[in-house]
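Q:
My hope is that you can spare some time for a protein that puzzles me. I hope you can help me see how the letters and the tokens relate. Thank you; the sequence and its tokens follow:
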Amino acid sequence: MSDFKIGILGFGTVGSGVFNVLKENNSEIHAKTGINFKITSILDLDQEKVTAITNDPSLLASNVDEVIKKSDVVVELIGGTGIAYEFAKKAIESGKYLVTANKALIALHGSELFELAKQNNTSILFEASVAGGIPIIKALREGLVSNKIEWVAGILNGTTNYILSEMKNNGLSFETALSQAQQLGYAEADPTFDIEGIDAAHKITIIASIAFGIPLDFKKVHIEGITNLQLKDVTYAEELGFRIKLIGLAKKTNNEIEIRVHPTLIPESRLVANVDGPMNAVLVMANMLGPTLYYGAGAGSDPTASAVVTDVVDLARSINHGSKTFHIPSNGFETSNSKGVSFKAIENISTGYYLRANFLDSAGVLAKITNLFAEKNISIDAMHQKMLKKDQKENDVIIVVNNALEKDINEIVDKIQLMESNIGSVVKLRLEEMAK
């Protein structure tokens, strides 16, 4: 192979990063592969930016057909599921290889696109769609191929992790921490996808498919964001020895699978609990190896671009050694692993819980709460009552249980909510030990 020709759709943060990685590390990549990687066309609305960065007007493409015609692999970095989806389909139908960093595209349309690629004797690679520069897809699909994956859990969104870190470390409110994240460029002007957990849900959908060999099904993910999280709960959690993180979790027990995203209390002794700032971390529990942790930059120009370029290199190597397509199936399984598999509804999961209720000072409150748990045969591991101050007429009661059924906890919450001395809404957060 003389040159492996690359066409880029979208030249924003990651697209320009791909150009930079290939420029800066060209000799290193060639020494490792013996292949010349050459960008032949770039399609972006901001043509002046493309020319300013590349200093090569000949790379400008006027339409997607031109990119497809000039390339061996089309790198889609537009994002979203609108025009990016249409361009991706067109590239695949033209028999071109596709590399993408687009988690929404894969989570929502991946199964369709994988089948289309199979029909057109081509391949799709998408390492950069999950956890930026962290090679978690490669780890699950290749490094842990001899293991059965029991569960995967991780911090998959840097924006929310930065916000939660600032709340914990500097005592900021959610609103203040979000504003700070926006000022620093960690959060978009409209941060909805991040703070409502949607971005992390796209990523855990992809991880679950690769971990368990199941079809991509975003609709099966239970999603809760961090918008309602209060600073006092972050503080109380730390006093109890926990840190709160927005966790994406995929677990398989027998033939039941649960996939969920929500704020989660994690014991402070766990490594993942100490991942701060905009960083990502993914913890994988494999039946033979045990737990392994993958940590690094989950976003940013060069980290994400490095994952994109790695996909391009892997693809070129596979083709250079005589394969017409990439030698590993998209989700790592030659045959479906979903026969007889069912998805567990959120009310049927079992995990730990943190509850906080606010009560007017009243006798017998703790006894009544204890009885509610006893009726469900749930052991209370810790119960704390925050002492009243002189000018207060109410106090917080915090309850921690290490294992309970969600629907039982929901019934208890409903009954606490109806107690005469209760004020406001009961807060419920899940707790994960992150250990075998």
